[in-house]
Amino acid sequence: MGLMKVLAINGSPHKDEGNTAMILGPFLEGMKEEGCDVEVLFVKDLDIKPCNADMSCWFANPGTCYQLDDMQMVLPKIKEADVIVWASPVYYSGMTGPLKILMDRQVPLSMLRNRAKKQKMVLVSTCSAWELSMFDPLIVQMKALYGNPEEGYEFAGALLRPMADSMREMIKAGETAMVDRVFLAAKKAGSQLAKEGRISEEVSQQVSRELMPRDAYYKAMELALDQMKKAVGKSP
Ligand SMILES: Cc1cc2nc3c(=O)[nH]c(=O)nc-3n(C[C@H](O)[C@H](O)[C@H](O)COP(=O)(O)O)c2cc1C
Q: What's the whole-model pTM score?
């Protein structure tokens, strides 16, 4: 494949310090190594107001939104990208609010899009729960939005990391081998997407791999929460 323009939009308020970035980072690295042109936007850094839904961008001024904020800069980037990576932690079973606001503000694009240009869409998400099913609503949303090739989109795969909060804990405890394998798989997914145009089921599963049994995970979470509460109680 030729040089691909990749736009990653990370909706985590933790930006580059968060769990989502721990997966997104190596994924994008894998694409860069294959020569892709990669740009990351953090929604937290952007001033993007909610859609007012008066549809002036369809009728009065087709393709133009009168709200003068950072969406003016984001829309051309979305339009030009060959790959868009939607990255978000799971918040109440969905993406974060600010990322959804950005998504909604794409309405003017539907007047401007060239449907002959194929765009690949990828989801990168992390959550606290042990269960992979925590991502089901996001996957359904991605498929509903980007699952129809006639619209010019292709849903090229998802990197889903449940038990995400344990990655940092495991690294702190020196149990790096398992977590490193997750990061390696995320990187492989990036090079796979760049070279083959999609992420294989096998590599996706490696990113989502079980880090510990369910009971042990929830017990460790409970202990960690107790410790955090105690630590807060002690602070002046
Ligand atoms: C407001 C809020 C809502 C959340 N909702 C969920 C949820 O519904 N399910 C879940 O498993 N984790 C939930 N989480 C946990 C985050 O998804 C998880 O910690 C994630 O890895 C954070 O990623 P980040 O560090 O990139 O922001 C929630 C966290 C917050 C702050």
A: 0.96
Nearest CA to ligand 1 atom 8: 92
Q: Name residues contacting ligand 1 (CB within 6 A).
A: 12, 14, 18-20, 89-93, 126-129, 134, 164-165
**How high is the pLDDT of residue 79?**
94
Closest Cα to atom 25, ligand 1: which residue? Answer: 18
At 112, list the tokens.
């401007």
Amino acid at 65: C
Number of domains in the chain: 1
User: How many residues does the structure list for the chain?
Assistant: 236
Centre of ligand 1 to C-alpha 73, Å, is: 28
- Residue 96 CA, ligand 1 centroid: distance in Å: 9
Q: Which residues of 104-126 are buried (b: 16+ CB within 10 A; e: fewer)?
A: ebbbbeeeebeeeeebbbbbbbb
180: domain CATH number is: 3.40.50.360
Give the structural domain span for 139: 5-210
